Amino acid sequence: MISVASLTPRRGRNVELLLLVIAVGIVVLAYANVEVAARGELPANLLAQTLGLLAIAGTFHLVLRWRASYADPLLLPIVTLLNGLGLVMLHRIDIARGNEFSSGLALRQLTWSALAVGIAIAVLVVLRDHRLLRRYTYSAGLAAVVLLLMPLLPFIGREEFGARIWIRVGSFTFQPGEVAKIALAIFFAGYLVSARDALSVSGKKVLGLILPRAKDLGPILVAWVLSLGILVFQRDLGSSLLFFGLFIAMLYVATERVSWIAIGLALLGVGAYFAYGTFAHLQTRVHLWLDPFAPGQSDQVAKGLMGLAAGGLVGTGLGRGRPTETYVVESDFIFTAFGEELGLIGLFAMILLYALLVQRGLRAAVGVRDGFGKLLATGLAFSIALQCFVVIGGLTRVIPLTGLTTPFLSAGGSSLLANWTIVALLLRISDQARRPLDETPPKVSAEPTEMVRAS
Amino acid sequence: MNAPIRKLGMLIAFLFTTLLVSTTIIQGFQAKSINARPDNRRTLLSTYSADRGAILVNSTPIAVSEETDNQYQRIRRYPEGPTYAAVTGYFSFLFGAGGGLERAENPLLNGRSDRLFYRRLSDVFAGQRPSGANIETTIVPAAQRAAVQGLGTNRGAAIALDPRTGAILAMATSPTYDPNVLASHDMAAVEEAWKQLNADTSKPMLNRALAETYPPGSTFKLVTAAAALSTGDYDMESELDAPRVLDLPQTSVDLPNFGGRECDPSGKQTMIEALRISCNTAFASLGLDLGEDVLRNQAARFGIGDALRVPMTVARSSFPDELDPPSLAQSAIGQRDVRMTPLQVAMVSAAIANRGIVMQPFLVRTVLGNDLSVIEETQPQQLSEAVTPDVASQLSLMMQRVVESGTGQPAQIPGVAVAGKTGTAEVGGDARGHAWFTGFAPAGDPQVAVAVIIENQGDNQSVSGGGRVAGPIAKAIMEAVLGS
User: Fold this and answer.
1) For residue A371, how many other CB atoms are within 10 A of its CB?
2) Which among A253, B72, B98, B126 counts the fewest CB atoms within 10 Å?
3) Residue A310's closest CA among A287, A288, A336?
4) Contact A342, A318 (CB under 8 A)
């Protein structure tokens, strides 16, 4: 019996290209939608702008063909779509506020996006193998600590909206915590892959749960104290939750011990209890969570909810809502702007995009062969998931609202740089995960057509 | 490590599912109640910025929404604000739609009325925002201006009807206000103006023509005369007892004429003569002879006691119950607890002018789409038959006599037969009474019926007081209608 088999494994690059074109198409459609709603006509330079976006996405796509040809084909289209929609919404907010394009949020964000894409490409080009990062485990840890401490430094540290998480040099502001997230993920992955054997040794069994040995509690306590430090000194509940959650998740994956999750949650509970009793701003946030419409307090959560409610099931349509009624709608509350103008249907689509993004990250973690890669991919994917949950959950009253940016959507360069770098790392790891064991692809170029083999 | 990664994946799936549920709860289930919150500025703004229809007089807008560049998107303008305030009312961002057609026809103006259902449906399919309907009023601009000018700085009201249809041709109340002040986007100024308007003891935002009831005074003698004629036992030449002072039964109180003068030396007077000089004792004794039920039935046939909407809600006019003889005598001349809106007084004249038929008064002639196509046209509606055509023509003759040679002479129009009745309603104590005039013209072919009241300007000592103060205003309004 003769069968025909392709010797080229599925790389999915053509699928990626198709999806990219669709993603850019959706973004352009949304942009045109906003312009028509706001000015009643299509933007004159729509074609040029479309080609520009296609060029950026296409460049990335070509780099993937060149340097990571087995990389997951869904990651790039998803983040292109999210980033593009974020740009459209910022442009829409600019219009509502009467900002000129040249001085508006959208142009800034576009510049940052281009820079972030450039850095992501650089990461893919320079970092041929993610395992190289393991060499820098402790450097990454040090870098994370330095980055986290920077906002506390005099002169460059800045406090905004009650949280001291910014640094400012000249007119340039940056949120180092966003980048610290990546450094921490690298550090945790490198550290845990070495320490996992020790950390998974069984200790006592309590209530059916096998606890770790008492002497292995050191690392989790350190992580806990650091998270509390972020909460106390930077008043940044969101980052604090994010970092601690990230550590617990990676610890669990490394050791396969559910008890770590139990211990982590217990520590979180203790920390939350004392923090709640100590910090007035946390009590305020909890009150806002329980009753956002109560008079005599901040109405920022209420305004966001009113935005969501105004959207209802189908939304007001892009450019037809009143997103600027919500405070800081360009960053922490940008998701409510989408809810207002795209409705529940739009939010479902966007939440599912995030879920798909995270799922592709986890799939890379499952597929990759080295423990470090698994932990790193898991950590990076989980950080996106947790960040989405903390932000969107805060906006929709699942949990108290804490200040975090919405990945790829919120205005802000640091967030874009960090998240695109995460995507670059996930692409790199997924390339390894999907690449055939025989590292070098079979030489098909010598064959004019598919090889026919007898089986 | 793949097993815990998959379990972590389950946890993540759970987290995202939570978000799907929470957004569904807010956008799907709570949206309605959140949108309905009074502190929801989005709802306020979108209600306010809807494409609100215009209110028109002869196709000229007296209330119109204009686009603005600010967040409110539109502003309401009233080109002749104070003149038409009683008709339009106001539309304010802070205080909503109030007074006048702005409030009464709010659903039509903002396009949410079910009466616009099919039009809205086509808007939805055409991808347009539903726009509000325009409202063409029945007002005659010249008559409206005459009414406003006539009232001047006095407190009072003037209203004119087309007796044949019930259309309101003029409706003015004084003092008035400028609705532009409340429609402004300068919120601090709006709030200040609102406070002042509400604190003002002269109540500028009160529509005295519809929402205030007054003792009708001698104008009520028309109702009493109508009741008498309708019994068939009287005609306009019937002799009535007209003593100088009517000794009220059961009391030591007497009912005198104005200034204590006698109506006729003989103590007897024909009904037409008694009406001409507005003899109190003659109509009081007539009322006593007719009895309470006959008077009340006649009042009801003129519409007194009916709930009216024009489309603004009209205060209910009333004739009191369970009268003892002295109260009955006073009620027969429009004192005591008889209360009528100026509109109701005008409706009495209009019914007499319209051969006894009371027409439903209305202010909206047509409802127009934004392309000015007619959506609805008001059809004149008969409310009741107050008197027979024969009684109506007798009453008309009697009223003409009032204007020809009686208390109503100030309302004479050269070359036009005017029918009318004056009134001076005592308000108790030493306060000056209200001056009334009601009537219609031309008597042979009535085209306009009016009622005018000026508060506290009647002369308690002079029977001609009402005619002197209110008569000229009524004359000006009638002339304006006839001349247009």
Assistant:
1) 18
2) B126
3) A336
4) yes
- Cα separation of A147 and B137, whole Å? 71
Specify the amino acid at residue A216.
D
Whether B218 is catalytic is yes
The predicted-structure confidence for B341-391, as pLDDT tens digits, reads as follows 999 999 999 999 999 999 999 999 999 887 778 888 999 999 999 999 999
Percentage helix, strand, coil, to 5, in chain A? 70, 5, 25
Q: What is the ipTM of this complex?
A: 0.92
Q: Which two tokens stand for residue B184?
A: 């402004």
Contact A8, A436 (CB under 8 A): no
Other Cβ atoms within 10 Å of A88 Cβ, number:
25
The model's pLDDT over B275-286, given as tens digits with 9 standing for 90+, comes to 888 888 888 888
Put simply, the answer to whether A397 touches B26 (Cβ < 8 Å) is yes
For residues A5 and B349, give the distance between their C-alpha atoms in angstroms, rounded to a whole number.
102
Give the pTM: 0.69
Owning domain of residue A430: 2-454
Write out the two tokens for A358. Answer: 């995270």
User: In angstroms, rounded to a whole number, what is the distance separating the alpha carbons of residues B237 and B273?
Assistant: 8
Provide the β-strand partners of residue B385.
Answer: B357
CATH class of B211-367+378-483: alpha beta
Interface test with B, best of A391, A392, A404, A426 (most B CBs within 10 A): A392
CB within 8 Å of A18: residues ≥ 6 apart? none
Residue type, B160: A
Between CA A363 and CA A365 the distance in angstroms is 5
CA A179 – CA B309 distance, rounded (Å): 69
Rounded to 5 degrees, φ, ψ at A165 are -130, 15
Interface of A with B in 81-140 (CB under 8 A): none
Take residue B216 and report the two structure tokens written for it.
Answer: 């009708």
| Helical (H) or strand (E) element with B440 | strand B434-441
